[in-house]
Design goal:
Layout (H helix, E strand, L loop, with lengths): L6 E7 L3 H10 L9 E4 L18 E5 H9 L3 H4 L4 E3 L1 E6 L6 E4 H4 L5 E5 H14 L4 E3 L2 E9 L2 E8 L5 E11 L7 H4 L4 E17 L6 E7 L2 E7 L7 E10 H8 L3 H12 L6 E4 L3 E10 L3 E2 L2 E3 L5 E2 L7 H21 L7 H30 L3 H16 L1 H12 L9
Parallel strand pairs: 1-2, 1-11, 2-8, 5-13, 11-19
Antiparallel strand pairs: 3-7, 4-7, 5-6, 9-10, 10-11, 12-15, 12-16, 12-17, 13-14, 14-15, 17-20, 18-19
The structure holds flavin-adenine dinucleotide.
């Protein structure tokens, strides 16, 4: 598929959750028209979700994210597939008690929603396919990115044609998940810190309804989350994210269903009910990775390529959407004021808006993971103290809840 123009105001590379949501935000009316191209390596079509990020995982969408999705007109397609989180029960394996947070305490109807990635993908793809203000090139891969007098030059390689085409853009938004090495090609470095863990994900069927409770449990081997899902064929379901040391993951993945369920039941306890079935399993390596530069003239990094977080705190996409909404507002403001959308001073303005939110969110999810993953007995005492602290000190619990709700990012008006 050949692009219609030689130059664009904005080209987004990657139509995963983040690139697709940004495309919707940039075309959210009314605004001065923008020549916008979205390039995706997988085929994007209505009714399907073939991009690699729309796999068997589920995502916790914070209340702040749901507000943004409503604003963009995306929520009504996702809502039927969304399970409400009314309570979050945090506990530590081997210790009594724990922390409970609930929606009434926070003064909201939901602390968040859980949606299967495939349903998020279908909603986004339907919106992209119907979007008249957007040119979509898929399946097309960006193979090279070079600084250019007009901003950036991109080499596009269609999945169907052997030839490659060059286009330029005043601003390129890399939202390719860190999958293609384009940022590295430009000499951008990453701070990487492996957790030495993998996350096993699967859907599980239980003997009882989840009653809107999300369970977060910390075990000596790593954190475990069981998240509410909408029922399927009359089955009560929850989405599992279960971390294991790197070298133990393959063994757990390969267990027969009954042994897998018995091991999981041991780790998560009985509070959610008896585990009856487990669906398709997959695993993901867990690394905290943050790009050392998230913008340059005519370039912004968004989503996983900018920051990849441990999934247990459910913050990766929520944070990336806040970054994307702030960027969309910045671009639209530049257009209204007649500035180039890729000018470094404008992008620096965006960075100043999101930097603090990123720092806080990354520290929160990393700190929580490290504190609750370590089997060290001294840390176990601290963990117990931490739980009690959360219960006893409303301001600390309030901060924890605020992070879960996702309302602390920059205030954005499109
Ligand atoms: C187990 C797990 C659970 C998680 N749970 C949560 C959660 O509950 N809440 C939360 O907020 N976050 C969660 N996350 C994080 C969340 O999944 C990510 O933040 C999010 O998927 C990042 O999306 P992305 O669009 O940046 O990248 P991707 O999903 O990787 O999308 C990148 C897209 O770019 C395309 N692409 C790649 N290279 C090229 C190229 N050269 N040219 C064109 N296209 C290209 C790819 O095909 C792909 O479609 C979780 C992560 C994991 C691993």
């Amino acid at each position: 598929m050949i692009p219609q123009h030689a130059h664009y105001d904005v080209i987004i590379v990657g139509a995963g959750m983040v690139g697709a949501a940004l495309a919707c935000a940039l075309t959210h009316a009314p605004a001065p028209p923008l020549k916008l191209l979205l390039v995706e390596a997988s085929r994007v079509q209505t009714g399907k979700a073939e991009q690699p990020g729309f796999d068997a995982r589920s995502t916790v969408l914070s209340a702040g994210t749901v507000d943004y999705l409503k604003l963009l007109g995306l929520w009504q397609t996702m809502a039927p597939s969304a399970a409400v989180i009314e309570k979050i029960a945090v506990s530590d394996q081997g210790h009594f008690g724990g922390v409970q947070m609930d929606n009434r305490e926070a003064g909201v109807t939901a602390l968040g929603h859980v949606v299967e990635n495939a349903a998020i993908g279908r909603a986004l793809n339907a919106a992209l396919s119907q979007n008249q203000q957007l040119e979509l090139c898929s399946p097309v891969q960006v193979t090279k990115l070079t600084p250019h007098v007009q901003g950036m030059q991109l080499a596009l390689q269609s999945g169907e044609a052997a030839t490659s085409v060059n286009v330029t853009a005043s601003l390129v938004v890399l939202a390719e998940g860190g999958r293609s090495g384009l940022a590295q090609q430009l000499g951008i470095h990453f701070n990487q810190n492996s957790y030495g863990q993998r996350a096993i994900i699967a859907n599980v069927a239980l003997s009882q309804p989840h009653r809107g409770i999300a369970y977060e449990r910390f075990t000596a081997k790593g954190p475990l989350a069981l998240l509410p899902l909408t029922p399927h064929r009359g089955r009560h379901r929850m989405a599992l994210v279960w971390t294991h040391p790197e070298d133990e993951t393959d063994g757990v993945l390969a267990l027969p269903d009954t042994e897998f369920l018995a091991k999981l039941q041991h780790d998560c306890g009985q509070r959610a009910g008896t585990l009856l079935h487990v669906g398709q399993r997959a695993s993901y390596p867990l690394t905290l990775q943050v790009a050392e530069e998230q913008y340059r003239p005519a370039l912004v990094l968004l989503g996983n390529v900018a920051h990849t977080l441990h999934p247990v705190a459910g913050q990766g996409f929520n944070l990336a959407l806040r970054d994307a909404m702030a960027l969309a507002a910045n671009v639209r403001q530049s257009r209204r004021e007649g500035h180039s959308v890729g000018h470094s001073s404008r992008l620096q303005g965006w960075w100043h808006q999101v930097e603090q939110d990123q720092g806080r969110t990354i520290s929160f999810s990393d700190g929580m993971t490290r504190l609750f993953s370590n089997p060290n007995p001294a840390l176990s005492v601290l963990r117990k103290g931490g739980m009690a602290g959360l219960e006893l000190l409303p301001p600390i619990k309030g901060l924890f809840m605020q992070q879960a709700l996702g309302y602390h990012g920059p205030s954005v008006r499109l």
